[in-house]
Design goal:
Elements: E1 2-8, E2 20-24, E3 33-38, E4 41-52, H1 57-62, E5 68-69, E6 72-75, H2 82-94, H3 99-117, E7 135-139, H4 147-155, E8 159-163, H5 170-180, E9 190-193, E10 205-210, H6 228-239, E11 242-247, H7 252-259, E12 263-267, E13 275-280, H8 298-301, H9 329-340, E14 345-349, E15 357-360, E16 377-379, E17 391-393, E18 400-402, E19 415-418, H10 422-432, E20 438-441, H11 449-462, E21 465-468, E22 479-482, E23 487-490, E24 493-500, H12 502-505, H13 512-525, E25 527-535, H14 546-560, E26 566-575, H15 578-599, E27 608-621, E28 624-634, H16 640-645, E29 653-656
Parallel strand pairs: 2-5, 7-11, 7-12, 8-9, 8-10, 10-11, 13-25, 14-21, 14-24, 20-21, 24-25
Antiparallel strand pairs: 1-2, 1-4, 3-4, 3-6, 15-19, 16-17, 17-18, 22-23, 26-28, 26-29, 27-28
Helix pairs in contact: 2-3, 2-6
């Protein structure tokens, strides 16, 4: 008789037990599939371990429950190998997620791997963690690959895993690796995949590469809320494989690791430098006015009538509110110059819509979504097929409303819009350059991938100016067809303008500046000649050296106890009733404080801070109120994490190492 520990392939919420014990007369291998009774129904489960009953007599006698039998052995051969099971266990423990739900990810990946690669699942030898191999971080352009390390691994006849943040980047790297791979190594397995590649079965993994390591797409938004680069690090440890991170601008966390000798830092210079200019709008007397202090628009008045592009309405009265423009005269002059040269221009604004919201100038009223705690976004033309039909739209639940004619609070007619979005930028640039061929690329106007690709192809065929949001980064490696030469070409813009990053300043994100700098680096990669950054804040961005930036970041993060000096855990409760949401939040706060007092001494309590509860930054989404708490735990004392989380009810969302705090 054998006592067998199994993991049910169903969601058992933490902190409930994830591994259950049953008995059977059959000897089973770790990773095999069985059928077990669970509550009132039968459920499939994966065997995690097994011992003979005679060795556990004392434990069986002391148990306060009766063991139940395994009903059926479905697959006697292991479906998952030991390394996969160990990685799945780590994910479940670290991210406080259902073990069974994590295992399902591995089983799905195995099926996909077998169908594509016809690779058999073999029970691998016992895994030994190897932390002696130091990781390497390449501070490099987006298209860089570490050729030497790839060739070395192929020579050793070992497998390679290359992680990419988005599936549409797989083809680019597949073609790039094919050039590195020589004829003798073509049979060796190189897996290029998004997050799911972490769960594939490997036989001899020797190298793990994570491209664009700071990309937020690596963060899973549903349970298990894992972050792929961290899981990749654990996978490399389990296999004793080399680990390489690639980033256009590494986060302060990686800089700190390099500074403390935990990783190797190597910088790869860009092959072609472009001109970068930061324009501080606050230093201009009247941005967009013809007599501003930095440059003059008088040259535009003397343009030859033969020119095909000209500025429209550049001489509006200074006091006219409509005189405000998202473009400074410096930028307008550069756009005019590149239009005359018939070169491609990109205008980047990381915000959809015409304006962020609608505001009453008399009482401060704003139009909010009835389902969510956010102001509705003002769109002049929400549906591409509709002409000039203003709408108020919620980008969280999809609610739409007609634009109010007057304030719903004080009945005032003095309504104005705040902020700018891609629609407003498109409208303004069309007003300034009415004869230019202008395209817009965002998910509002092109929700489908085929439409996005079509927009880019048409722009490079006949367009002058492209207005886009962060969607452009999904096509950083894309190519278009030059029909005149019948060849494929890279997407490159002679001039790129970062119109505004003001909306990002308002978000509760301590990583704001590093994310901004990363966007700038990606935009520069898409640019062949000149990059312009319009800055309406008092922060200096391009003028600050990277060393100064990193040192300042680390100084502030240490002061406020943020990573890399702490681990963050965000707890979120959602409910349709506000009072219930608030009550549950305060009940959990009390439980957490009591739990801290139980296992922490007075001297060590400073290693943990519990902030909140407070309404989330976006306090209501799709009719459900949201309250957050934030736990900060001093590194490397993460052993405290699961002790604290034991008191968190299953109804709460637990996000370990959160990417956003909305």
């Amino acid at each position: 008789m054998y006592i067998t520990d199994v993991v049910p392939l169903t969601k058992i919420p933490q902190p409930l037990p994830q591994i259950l014990s049953y008995f059977t007369s059959q000897k089973l291998e770790k990773g095999s599939l069985v059928l077990i009774p669970l509550q009132k129904k039968n459920t499939e489960a994966i065997v995690f371990s097994q011992k003979e009953a005679k060795d556990l007599k004392q434990e069986i006698k002391k148990a306060d429950f009766a063991l139940r039998p395994i009903l059926e052995v479905i697959e006697k051969d292991p479906l998952l190998d030991e390394r996969q099971l160990n990685l799945a266990k780590w994910i479940s423990d670290y991210y406080f997620a259902s073990f069974g739900k994590v295992l399902k990810l591995f089983l799905t990946a195995n099926k996909k791997s077998q169908s594509q690669l016809k690779k058999p699942i073999q029970s691998s030898t016992k895994s030994k963690l190897n932390k002696s191999i130091k990781s390497i971080l390449y501070f490099s352009p987006p298209d860089f690959l570490p050729e030497n390390e790839i060739k070395e691994t192929l020579f050793e006849k070992k497998e390679i895993l290359l992680l990419v943040p988005e599936k549409n980047k797989i083809d680019f790297f597949r073609k790039k690796i094919a050039k590195i791979q020589n004829q003798n190594n073509k049979n060796l397995q190189i897996t290029i995949a998004a997050r799911s590649g972490l769960f594939f079965p490997f036989q001899k993994l020797g190298l793990v590469i994570v491209s664009d390591v700071d990309n937020e797409s690596y963060k899973e938004q549903r349970e298990p809320r894992l972050f792929a680069p961290d899981v990749a690090q654990k996978l490399a440890e389990i296999w004793g494989a080399k680990l390489i991170f690639l980033s256009v601008l590494p986060g302060a966390d990686y800089y700190f690791k390099a500074k403390t000798g935990k990783i190797l830092w190597k910088k790869i210079e860009n092959k072609k430098e472009i001109q970068k200019v930061e324009i501080n709008i606050n230093s201009l007397k009247n941005p967009g006015d013809k007599n501003d202090s930095l440059t003059s628009l008088k040259d535009y008045n003397s343009l030859s009538a033969k020119r095909s592009y000209f500025l429209k309405n550049s001489n509006k009265p200074k006091n006219d509110q409509k005189n405000w423009s998202p473009f400074s005269s410096v930028v307008l002059k550069e756009i005019e110059k590149y239009l005359e040269l018939k070169k491609k221009i990109l205008l980047f604004i990381n915000r959809k819509g015409t304006a962020t919201n609608l505001l009453c100038q008399d009482c401060g009223w704003q139009k909010f979504c009835k389902n969510c705690g956010v102001p509705l976004t003002y769109h002049i033309n929400h549906q591409p097929s509709t002409i000039n039909h203003p709408m108020m739209v919620c980008h969280y639940c999809g609610f739409k409303n007609n634009v109010p004619e007057y304030c719903e609070n004080c009945k005032s007619w003095r309504l104005t819009t705040l902020g700018i979005g891609a629609e407003e930028v498109e409208k303004e640039i069309k007003n300034k350059f009415p004869q230019a061929k202008i395209f817009r690329l965002d998910r509002e106007i092109s929700p489908k991938i085929k439409d996005q690709k079509k927009t880019l192809q048409e722009f490079f065929e006949k367009g002058d100016i492209l207005v886009s949001t962060s969607l452009i980064f999904s096509y950083i490696f894309a190519r278009y067809v030059d029909k005149s030469l019948r060849v494929e070409k890279e997407l490159k813009f002679a001039l790129t303008v970062f119109v505004s990053f003001g909306a990002q300043l308002s978000l509760p994100d301590f990583r704001f500046e590093e994310k901004l700098r990363r966007q700038i680096e990606k935009l520069c990669f898409l640019t062949s000649e000149k990059f312009l950054l319009q800055n309406r804040s008092k922060r200096e961005i391009l003028g600050k050296s990277l060393k100064d930036f990193y040192n300042k970041e680390l100084e502030e993060r240490k002061k406020y106890f943020y990573p890399p000096f702490s681990q963050l855990i965000k707890l979120t409760f959602k409910h349709k009733n506000l009072e219930i949401t608030k009550k549950e939040a305060y009940v959990l706060k009390e439980k957490l404080e009591k739990q801290l007092n139980n296992f922490l001494t007075n001297n060590s309590q400073s290693t943990v801070r519990v902030l909140g509860p407070v309404p989330a930054f976006i306090s209501k989404i799709k009719g459900r109120y949201r309250w957050n708490m934030l736990i900060k735990i001093k590194r490397p004392e993460t052993r405290i994490q699961n002790k604290l989380l034991q008191v968190v009810p299953p109804e709460w969302e637990v996000d370990v190492d959160p990417i956003n705090f909305f």
